[in-house]
Structure formats: C-alpha cells, structure tokens
Amino acid sequence: MKTVIVGAGPAGLFCAYELAKVGAKVVVVDSGSSTERRKCPMKKMGYCVKCNPCNLIHGVGGAGLFSDGKLNLDPRIGGDMLQFMKEDEAQRLIEYIDRIFRENGAQGDRNVIDSRADELMRKAKMAGVKFIPIVQRHIGSDMLPGVIESLKSYLEALGVKFVLNTEVDDIEVHNGSLEGVVAGKSIIKGDFVVVATGRGGAQWLAKKCMQLGIPTQHQPLDVGVRVEVPAEIMKEVTDAFWDPKFYIQTGQYDDFVRTFCTCPYGFVISESYNSFICTNGHSMVSLKSENTNFALLVRVALTHPVENTTEYGESIARIASTIGGGRPVLQRLGDLKAGRRSTWERIKRSYVKPTFTYVTPGDISMVLPGRIMTDVKEGLEMLNKVIPGVAEDSTLLYAPEIKFHALRVNVSRHMETPVKNLFAVGDGAGVSRGIVGAALSGIVAAREIARRCRHG
Ligand SMILES: Cc1cc2nc3c(=O)[nH]c(=O)nc-3n(C[C@H](O)[C@H](O)[C@H](O)COP(=O)(O)OP(=O)(O)OC[C@H]3O[C@@H](n4cnc5c(N)ncnc54)[C@H](O)[C@@H]3O)c2cc1C
Fold this sequence. Notes:
Radius of gyration: 22 Å
Distance between the termini: 9 Å
Bound molecules: flavin-adenine dinucleotide
CATH architecture of the largest domain: 3-Layer(bba) Sandwich
Number of strands: 22
Number of domains: 2
Strand content: 15-25%
CATH topology of the largest domain: FAD/NAD(P)-binding domain
C-alpha cells in the first residue's frame, strides 16, 4: 500500500521516516526544491534567514528545518500534544525525535533542569511571573541544512521517493473513497494521504477541508514585539535555558503574555508576506552578535461576531507596514515611555546597536492596538523584576511580531480526518506550533498507517 505525503517539512519528513523504516511505500511531494535555500535572496552571510521564499515556499526541510532549530523537548510546548496522548508517551516520542536529529548530525547542546530552574522559578514567582523550565536543544540555523540533507539521503536510501517542485492542487476523493492527490495534470495515486503543508499551505488546506466537509476552527493569535537587549543582561538566564519561557498575566486587561523564541547572541530578521512585513529572530553557532532578542507576545482569541484571528492579525500587520513604509518599525523603549518616536539619531545615541537595520525608526504605539501596547509595556516591567535590565530605556522594540496559527482541522487522535485514510498533520492542520510537535504528529499518523498496512 502506498502513502502520499504532501509537504516535506518536519511533519512530512518524520512521517516518511516512520513509514519507510517498516518498509512501507512512500512518496513525498513538495512544491519547493531541496536547493531552494541556495537561491535565497537574503543569503548574504552564508546561511538562510527566513524571508518570504523560505517561509512560504520551502522544499525539503520546510519552515522548521530552515529555521533556528530550537528543539523544544517538552510536550507542553509547540502545540499541545497532550490532547492526543498521555504525557509519558509524548515524552518517549520526543526523545525518539531528538535521537533521529542527533543521528543526522544535530550537535547543539541540550540543557538540563537543575537548581538554576528552581531559583528562576522562585524569582519569577516573587515578580508575579511564571517560569516554565523545559529541556531544549539548539541546533543553529547554520547547522540545519546539513541535518536536512542527511535525513533526506537516509530516506532515499530506504526507498522514499521525493517529487519536488510539484505543487499539489487537489485531494482526490470519489464517493467518500480517497484515491490520491492531483498535481497539475497528473494524479499521484495513494491508499493513504498525509497532508503536511505547514503554515504556508494552511489556506489551501482550509479550502480543501471546506470542500470535503471536514470541520475546522479558528485558533488564537499571538501579537507583540521582538525585544532586543545586550546579551549580558540575559546571560545568566540563557546560559541555563537557551530559550526561557516566561508566562505573564497582565494587570489591566488580565491578558496572557509570554516570551517566545529567545535568540541568545542572535539576530533580528524580517518575515515578509505578500502585503506586509513582520519580525522574527534567529541565532547561529558560527556567528554571534552582542545582543539577545526574544518575542514578547500577547495571546488574542476572538469570539462572536468575528472569530477570524488571521484576518485581525493581518490587518495589524498591514497598518505596521503602512507606518513603517514597508519595513518593520523600531523604537527604543525610552522613546516609547516618553511618548516620542525614535529616530536614527536617537537610536545611535543608545548603547544597544540594532542587529537588524532594514527598519523604520518610529512609534510602535501607532502600530499596535492600545490593549496590546499596554500588555507589552506591563509584560516588560514584570519581566524586568526577573531579569533586571530588560525594561531599560535603551531596550529596542521591533514591531510587529505576529504568530499566525492555522485553522485547527478536526482530526482523530491518530491525526485522521473524517475522510477515511486522509490524515492532516503539523502546523498546517493546526495541531502543532513547532518542529518537534510537527514531527511528532507526523509519526503518530505514520504509526496508524503502518498498523493498517499490517492488518489490511
Ligand atoms: C522564522 C521561523 C523560525 C522558526 N524557528 C523555530 C524554532 O527554532 N523551533 C521550532 O520548534 N519551530 C520554529 N519555527 C516553527 C517551525 O518552523 C514550524 O513549526 C514547523 O516547520 C512546522 O512543520 P510542518 O512540517 O508542519 O510545516 P513546514 O515546515 O511549513 O513544511 C510544509 C511543507 O509543505 C510544502 N507545501 C505547502 N503547500 C504545498 C502544496 N500545496 N503542495 C506541495 N507542497 C506544499 C512547503 O513547501 C513546505 O516544505 C520557526 C518558524 C519560522 C517561520
């Protein structure tokens, strides 16, 4: 029996790995090519940063394996896997994923939860902040391409066929029976189809779900800023936890704010979409800056009459692009507090040198809605009690940083949609929000497919 996997990101690759290991016949189709990163227009420093071509059209490795490569080795992070399985089972699968990464050359350090976590938790509690100690491994954006190549070669040696530069247009279902997928004029037949199209393919998947009568639902959005501070300020914390997770409940609005994607000694970058531009961050093994950056994000859920969080996030991003003249807006925290815009002169006088300069110095309170601005300012002040210095006047804020999340596709605990033998996994199906979660969902689908192949 043959499985067609659409998408070669972490979800698709790990699904293929698990199936190929037991001798199943697998075809992986991806709209990108494995050499896409060499064509990346931002490849000025010998590595791939995440710009539009990398975010939305990927190729083998998807968004995840062209990223910073922070592996969150905890089932609570990166999409709640505990809605599909018990914690011990999820943790076993996570260790398995980490092992596969290591076998394919991922060498970054893995932190341990020790007395430093207790101390940080105590300090955070005293400031009204929650610190979530998690185990992580940081691979580095410069190391990932080698890991991807290794994994791909291994899969090919096991007989997995990669069909690249091929966009899947449709899923073939006749009288309720799945037949395969359509790519251009050809049909790729399959007994099972696993859709692993990531965030870039989320809208396409949502449309297909509507056509096939598969229920979906909107998920919350995360909106905020990318914060940049001198690396020394966060050194004590980031030496122990590469990407520390702080959760904050704000005073005025009782909103949920969190730190996300901390990049010690890293670089701020842009994330371009068709009609707007957002910010992000990454860090490398071979090249380090003097700063640390992280996202400070406010969780936004919408209810009646408007539930479409993606549309809301996009409208914020479009305002930001208008104010910034097509670039993200950069402001010193001191200028924000003083109610004045930042200028290049003011930023140059500051002792934090921005690692990203394709920005417009300005006023981020003209960009983000008032409630989100209040949450960001409160969040930074509370965080300052745990990490003194993060809310200094010289701290740099880049806006907007937005984490869009795909519509959540209605899938079973095996990741199967209501259409028999059609599975939806990874970020595109809204079941994960990170490399490990995506990989895990791919493995779950693969194990169920393998079971059905064995038992007919
Ligand atoms: C800038 C950035 C940094 C990140 N850093 C981290 C990090 O450090 N740690 C972490 O855990 N997560 C990180 N993430 C998130 C992580 O990349 C994703 O969670 C993960 O890649 C999702 O995996 P996926 O397989 O579901 O989708 P993707 O990785 O998005 O892969 C989907 C694949 O499907 C293909 N595709 C889409 N539509 C079609 C179609 N119609 N036909 C054929 N192929 C199609 C795409 O070309 C792509 O290759 C980062 C994301 C970004 C954007």
